[in-house]
């Protein structure tokens, strides 16, 4: 199965990428207001169904361009592409969610600033495996402009996250919780990286806080994944956070609290880092210069001793 990759999240944000194949191009975007001239809503459906059940939903398309557009529905499989939330899109497959979806009507003609609906029906097979199944329903517009031999096709889609009831496993671990160990420039943010692995069979939305302590006193608290981004089964996703608080020189401890699913928590060891103030930085620079001077003096003394030792030989 051939996939094409785009960087995309399950949030209600817009993204776009141009994918050129031969002389044609496709521009993809997800939901929300779009400079591409098309908006779909909702950007995401997060659904639960039983095996053998049928679910019907609607995707509303709005033509924000200045000309009439004709849209046709396209259903793609999706899979993780990287740790930044990128997804790989591929042709529909009868073995998973993309193959369980049928969309009507077959096309939708919309005048400028008009809206219309695509209705899609999900027929979950009786033998569908419990857990998460994922697809995207795109509204594809026919080429409306061309430049030379290249034409642009626009696709704007709604992501479908379907949880099939049954033996559901929500499980996760933290692969990495780290930060830079020292800050040498006053006012520089303290950046944190958290990488979460989904070891279950359904998507999860890990959220939490990073607390910074100096001794027993909490000096800052930073939310993690406030946008509610998902981690797909078997995938690792990287989250970042930063403390912009101006911290005085000293040693600090950071503690991560992470919650997902039905209140499950992940135990993560705390990490420490040092903030180096202006005075400390001056001391470090002076020390390095002093060591350099000592090395230079030692080298000069060695070079002076060599001729003297040579004169004493016969």
Task: Walk me through the structure.
This protein is mainly beta. The protein folds into two domains: 4-164, Immunoglobulin-like; 172-275, Immunoglobulin-like (Sandwich). The chain is built from two helices and 23 strands. The strands form four sheets. Strands 1, 2, 3, 5, 7, 8, 10, 12, 13 and 14 form a ten-stranded mixed sheet that branches. Strands 16, 18, 19, 21, 22 and 23 form a six-stranded mixed sheet that branches. The N and C termini lie far apart (84 Å). The model is unreliable at 1-27, 29-35 and 145-149 (pLDDT under 50).
What attributes characterize this protein structure?
51% strand; disordered N terminus; 2 domains; 23 strands; 2 helices; mainly beta; 314 residues; Immunoglobulin-like; 12% helix
Q: Low-confidence segments, ≥5 residues, pLDDT <50?
A: 1-27, 29-35, 145-149
- CATH architecture of the largest domain, by name, is Sandwich
The amount of beta strand, in percent, is over 45%
Helix content: 10-25%
In short:
The protein has two domains: about 5-165, Immunoglobulin-like (Sandwich), CATH 2.60.40; about 170-275, Immunoglobulins (Immunoglobulin-like, Sandwich). The chain is about 10% helix and about 50% strand.
Task: Give the helix/strand layout.
Elements: E1 4-7, E2 17-21, E3 24-30, E4 38-41, E5 44-49, E6 54-63, E7 69-80, E8 86-91, H1 97-100, E9 101-104, E10 108-110, E11 115-123, E12 131-141, E13 146-147, E14 150-164, E15 172-179, E16 182-183, E17 190-198, E18 207-214, E19 217-224, E20 236-243, E21 250-260, E22 264-266, E23 271-275, H2 278-311
Parallel strand pairs: 3-14, 5-14, 16-23
Antiparallel strand pairs: 1-8, 2-3, 4-6, 6-11, 7-8, 7-10, 7-12, 9-11, 12-14, 13-14, 15-17, 17-20, 18-19, 18-21, 21-22, 21-23
